[in-house]
Each structure stands twice: as structure tokens, then as C-alpha cells.
Amino acid sequence: MVNLSQTGDGTFMLHFEGDFTFNSHNHFRIAIKDALHQQASSLNISLKGVKYIDSSALGMLLLAMEECKAKNCKMSVTEASGYVADVLNMVMLEKLVDRAQA
Amino acid sequence: MTRPNSPSLESLTAGAERVAEMTASTQWFASHDAALQLSELVIARQLCTATCAWQLRLILHELLRNAIEHGNLEVSSHQKHTSLDSLQHYYHQVEEALNSPLTQRHITLSLWYKNKTFIGQIQDDGLGFCEQHSQGLGLDLLKKITSSLTYLNNGSLAIFTLEDKHAQP
Question: What is the CATH number assigned to the segment(s) A2-101?
């Protein structure tokens, strides 16, 4: 489940719950587009409720980061824990750094 | 893609217990979460730690997605890496392929267990892929989680090992 809320002026929070896999792509895409359409300057994606994540979801986070960057919106991924945090640490950190520097 | 120094499946599985062996159509694997079911099975049988079961689920999930979508259904992963909007195109390509004769191609999944290590093999009927040109994160993830990963038959056969590093000695 994906839930987008505005937490301040130009600041948005996207809460994710359940398994984050390719099956989530449409809800995720719509939520990101919605935040950018509302001219978000900051978007925090919380993975607190996510218990499982796969490489498709990691790819979607990277694509979202690129689209946010193109719209001058700062995107962050927070509150990942347990195995989800392990997977993010394994693959995402270096990719995020690569893209942030690109 | 064959690595001459990789141990053979026969030597890896010598004396190992066969945990699962299943052959089914692409359609069946696309509509059943075999990775989740097998990870629950190994937990129920107390074969490994929860961490190892979670890793096993992720490995099987990634390898089965590859076998289904890129192997048997021959859908290129390119659209998954282009933009958020292109994900829809990718989804429709997979759905279309699942309604084509390609969906009758088979996948075979085999899993063994020996000395706190799982040995798995997943084979599809597709044309294979070039490991060097793979652009997805899946392969990066698999290489980091597995203890070893070998592709044979041009990439249509994957053999992995996963050691339960958190198991009690």
C-alpha cells in the first residue's frame, strides 16, 4: 500500500507498506507523479512498513530519484529496517551516490 | 558464460538432501509465489535461520523473475530502467507475453541442502542472456547475497549456493 501526504510547504511523505516489488509499480509511479505535480521540493519515502523488497523496487527508487532531481525535488529514503535495510545497504548506497554525483 | 573453474552441480549436491524439485509452465510460476512458499517450507522444517530463509526467498524470487520474464517470455528489461512511465510499458509487454504460446515454456527449480548450505538450480527454456550486458540491479543483488552464482547454457541455467552464515556451529 502506498500513501502520499503533504507534511509541510512543498514537503511530502510517501509511506509504503507490505511487499515492495514490481507489483507496486503503478501505485508508486502515480504517487511520485502526484507529488511532483504538486511541485514538491522535498519527498521522503518511508519504508517503515516494508518487510520485503526486491531489485525491481530498488530500480524504481533510482528512477524516482532521477525524476525528482530533474524537477529540483530532493528525495530521501528513510526508516528501512531489518532485511530491507540490509538490501538497501548492499546495493543502493553505491548506486545512489553514483547518481547523486552524476 | 561457462566458468571452467566452477564446481559441477554433481559435486555440489553429492550427499545433499533434495528439498524441492518442481517443473511447471511459465504461466504457473507467474501466478504462484514459489520463492515465498519454499522459504516458508525451509523455516517450517527448521533447516536454516530466518535470515537465511529471507535470503533464499530473495534469490529464488530474482532468479524466477529472470527465468519467467527475460528467459521464457523474451521480454527485454530495457523498459524497466528508462523511466517510471516506461514501467507500464514493461508490465504490458509481460502481460501480452503471458497470453502468448511462450507461456507454455517450462521452468525447472531444484533445491538441495547440505552442511548449512542450500544449492539451487533454475532452468528455463529461453534463449539465455549475456551476463556482461545485464543492466539490472538483480544480478548485483544476487552476486552479493549468494555464496556462488554460475550461469550455464548461455544464461538459461543458473546454479547458486547460499551458506547460512548465522547458523549455530
Answer: 3.30.750.24
CB B145 within 8 A of CB B57: no
Give me the domains of chain B, ranges plus CATH numbers.
9-163 (3.30.565.10)
Give the whole-angstrom CA distance, residue B36 versus residue B61: 8
On the question of pLDDT at B166 being above 90, the answer is: no
Closest C-alpha among B16, B43, B45, B48 to residue B168:
B48
Question: Which residues in chain B have Cβ-Cβ distances shorter than 8 Å to A58?
Answer: 137, 141
Q: Do A56 and B80 touch (CB under 8 A)?
A: yes
Tens-digit pLDDT profile for residues B107-125: 999 999 999 999 999 999 9
What sign for the dihedral angle of Cα B94, B27, B147, A61?
positive
Q: What is the pLDDT of residues B51-107, one digit of tens each?
A: 999 999 999 999 999 999 999 999 988 878 889 999 999 999 999 999 999 999 999
- Model ipTM over 0.85: yes
Domain ranges for chain A: 2-101
